[in-house]
Amino acid sequence: MTDANTPKTGPVTTRTGAVRTITAAVGEVLVSARGLQKSFGDRQVMKNVDFDMLVGDITVIIGKSGSGKSTLLRALAGLTEPDDGRIMFDGEIVFDEQKRTPVWKEVDSYIGMIFQSYTLWPHMDVAKNLTLAPRKKLGMSEDEAMERAKKSLAEVGMSQHLHSRPAQLSGGERQRAAIARALMMEPKLLLCDEITSALDPPVAAEVLGVLQRLKEEEGIAVALVTHDMAFASKAADRLVFFHEGEIAVNTTPDEAFNRSDNPELKKFVDAVRF
Question: Beta strand pairing status for 84-89 and 29-40?
Answer without folding.
Answer: antiparallel
